[in-house]
Amino acid sequence: MREEIDKMALNNSQRVNHFRNFYEIARKDLLIKNLKRMKKQPDLPAKWDFFPATFGMPTEYSLFLDEFKRSPPGTVWIMKPISKSQGKGIFLFTKLNQIAGWRTDMPRDASQTPPEAYVVQRYIASPYLIGGKKFDLRIYALVMSYTPLVVYLYRSGFARFSHHRFSLDDINNTYIHLTNVAVQKTSDSYTGHAKWDLVNVRQFVTAKHGAEAARKVFNDIQAVIVHCLLSVQRVMFQDRHCFELYGYDILIDSDLKPWVLEVNASPSMTAENPEDYKLKTTLLQDVLYIVDVENKRPHTAMPEEHVGGFDLIYHGTKYYSESCFLGTMNPRVHSRPEYC
Question: Are 158 and 198 in contact (CB under 8 A)?
């Protein structure tokens, strides 16, 4: 995309729904590289502990090997192709001989084609479970600018559930460990009901752990989203014609700690059911309203703090950490639209 947009002269009314080097946050290996860089800053490490130990393969194989040897026997690791989606090519392992086939593909000299690039991560072995099943969260963030950084967070999202009860006894069963709908749909036990509204997740956590615990975990999720964007802010090519809607995949562990799994620059807008359809159509309407291609809204120096189902969470250097509406009632999804 970057090569094409560099050849274009866009007028004031034209918009592009990606930043030129969006892959800095959307590619698994580059996201981790940027997060690791921020974590090295001496005054920040405690704020950047929301991603597991991760290594790029094959370039960081020796570093991974050192970490593998330091880890307790039986530690579970997960391998993910850097450029694939929908759970394709992902597998778990506990022993080095289980990736021997991948290792033998490594080139012996420069003339050979290198193996497909992966990231290997320490698997989060104690996820938070509902009904004994693993789930992750899909959350939407809209970035209108990187300089200054302007971020809106959508109140609505959903949890994607596995259709099998969680267990580490069978790490080869992708239906247990991968919550991607594309994977779960191929299971014989798939019923078509694999999602919860984010409101239901927050209500469940509130009922089980109390309102303060629920408030904290959702505030922590919002902080993870902001920190991921801050990690790439300086390397992103700013363009006033560009905006981007990101789909974050977040996992909560048994201690109610959120972990970022990946960030999608082209989140799926395919609807699985009527509720999914309503969420995604109103989400897109709200995005287009904020982007305002037709210049119908009055422009002010300070963006509106609440637009449809979106809430402003970061502007310039100000982080709106005192209020988190994630997982609360969304007037756009849970009532009639205020505008079309």
Answer: yes
